[in-house]
Design brief:
The protein has about 425 residues and is α/β, with parallel strands linked by helices. The protein contains 12 helices and 19 strands. The chain has 2 domains: about 100-320, Type I PLP-dependent aspartate aminotransferase-like (Major domain) (Aspartate Aminotransferase, domain 2, 3-Layer(aba) Sandwich), CATH 3.40.640; about 330-425, Aspartate Aminotransferase, domain 1. The longest helix is centred in the last third of the chain and has 20 residues, at about 330-345.
Length: about 425
């Protein structure tokens, strides 16, 4: 379907379904608000407001309050909402079972993995628990983590420490990738078994050098787990290029998918080293109660089990299609443009704020965190919401005491400018 009103140089198109670039899109009724934005792989500048306004039109977001907190939850576009609704109705109309596993190849393609390496979970924390509980660790074994962890990564490892006596060694990321690598390397000793760190910190949005961390860990004979809650949908992601053993993420942040979806990547070479603790129908190739035997699957599917919602995962597939057809390079470019605009405006405030997100190339994405000097961070957050109508996130975790702004493809520069003016008045 082509709409002349939104055509830019003949390459911006919208579609309600069909086969696009080898991908079978979910189709919607003609009267639906849901459309896929097709960029035909042409690079779109981060400041092409005509294109991005078309994208913005595919979200049901209100114009006020202005949502600047995608790092907590990503609003879904109409294509996702309609896909979930249609699948829910279809399942109940036909009394149909299954279907949630059909999204696995699409997830694998999105992150450049093999389908056999993908386990379907409900969120990031599900995947972290699979790894934290399943690795063969014993009393005294050490796990290296950062002081910028989300509870979803910290708590499962703390529980394992309480249960089995493993030791958590905490490092602070450096301002640069080289400094972070040096600090991790210095923390490694003869008892270290695992490096479990975020790819992008939930506190400041700093992008850690995941590939180099993986290489360092493997050179030392360690398992490497990456908490990638904020990566897919913000930045292009290639798990094989990163080289980690485990990577876990969710569909409800930057992927703009349904809430309650996620997946865990397990490098095929280490699947057998991870013991399943949550098990049920689907994890095995055969079991016998009388004989007391069970044989697990030899792929990552052994870690997802029992009944799940096909509607949620059909919606996740629609979200992947939505991002894929806009183009992840285009999505990333837009995020960098908005973050750069925000960072530049904060710099103009001088010493009234401290920017906490590193500006090293490759060290940041679509998140900017800052600490106000003349007003408490929590007071600023409440004033931004109540007086100026901006939804943001305060970050009390780990004593950061700062404010975090995260934008996505539904945001526009005018919102960033209005936000900066509000901050200027408040600080």
């Amino acid at each position: 379907m082509t709409s002349p009103a939104i055509t830019r140089r003949g390459f911006i198109r919208t579609a309600t379904g069909g086969m696009i670039g080898g991908t079978l899109l979910y189709a919607f009724p003609e009267g639906s608000r849901a459309r896929y934005i097709l960029a035909d792989e042409e690079p779109v500048p981060g400041d092409d407001e005509h294109f991005w306004n078309v994208v913005r039109g595919q979200f049901p977001l209100r114009t006020e309050p202005v949502f600047l907190n995608n790092g907590t939850i990503g609003p879904s576009p109409f294509v996702v909402i309609d896909a979930v609704t249609a699948e829910l109705e279809s399942v109940d109309r036909d009394a149909r079972y299954g279907g949630w596993e059909d999204v696995r190849p699409k997830i694998a393609r999105f992150v450049h993995a093999d389908p056999e390496e993908i386990s379907i979970t409900h969120n990031v924390t599900d995947g972290i628990n699979v790894v934290a509980c399943g690795l063969p660790l014993k009393n005294g074994d050490e796990v290296i983590m950062t002081d910028q962890e989300h509870a979803g990564n910290a708590v499962p490892w703390l529980a394992r420490a309480r249960r089995d006596g493993i030791v958590i060694r905490v490092i602070s990321p450096g301002w640069t990738a080289a400094e972070t690598l040096e600090r991790i390397n210095d923390a490694i000793n003869s008892r270290t078994r695992v490096i479990a760190v975020p790819h992008i910190t939930c506190t400041t949005g700093q992008v850690l050098p995941a590939r180099e961390i993986s290489t360092l860990g493997h050179d030392k004979g360690l398992w490497v787990m990456i908490d990638a809650a904020h990566t897919p949908g913000m930045l292009p992601l290639d798990v094989h290029a990163i080289g980690c053993d485990f990577l876990t993420t969710c569909g409800h942040k930057w992927m703009l998918g349904p809430k309650g979806t996620g997946f865990l990547y397990i490098r095929k070479d280490v699947i057998g080293e991870l013991e399943p603790y949550w098990v049920g129908a689907g994890v095995d190739t055969g079991w016998d109660l009388r004989a007391g035997t069970i044989t697990y699957r030899d792929d990552a599917h052994r870690f997802d089990f029992a009944t799940q919602s096909s509607a949620l995962y059909v919606g996740l597939g629609a979200a992947i299609d939505f991002l894929y057809n806009i183009g992840m390079e285009n999505v990333s470019r837009r995020g960098q443009a908005l973050a750069g605009r925000l960072r530049g405006g904060l710099r103009e405030l001088g010493e009234r704020v401290e920017i906490l997100t590193p500006d090293e190339p490759g060290g940041y994405g679509s998140v900017v965190a800052f600490r106000p000097k003349n007003i408490a961070f929590d007071t600023l957050q409440q004033s931004l919401l109540n007086e100026h109508r901006f939804v943001t996130r305060q970050v009390p975790e780990n004593g950061m005491n700062c404010n975090r702004i995260s934008t996505h493809i539904y945001n526009v520069p005018a919102e960033v400018d209005r936000f900066l003016e509000a901050v200027r008045r408040l600080v």
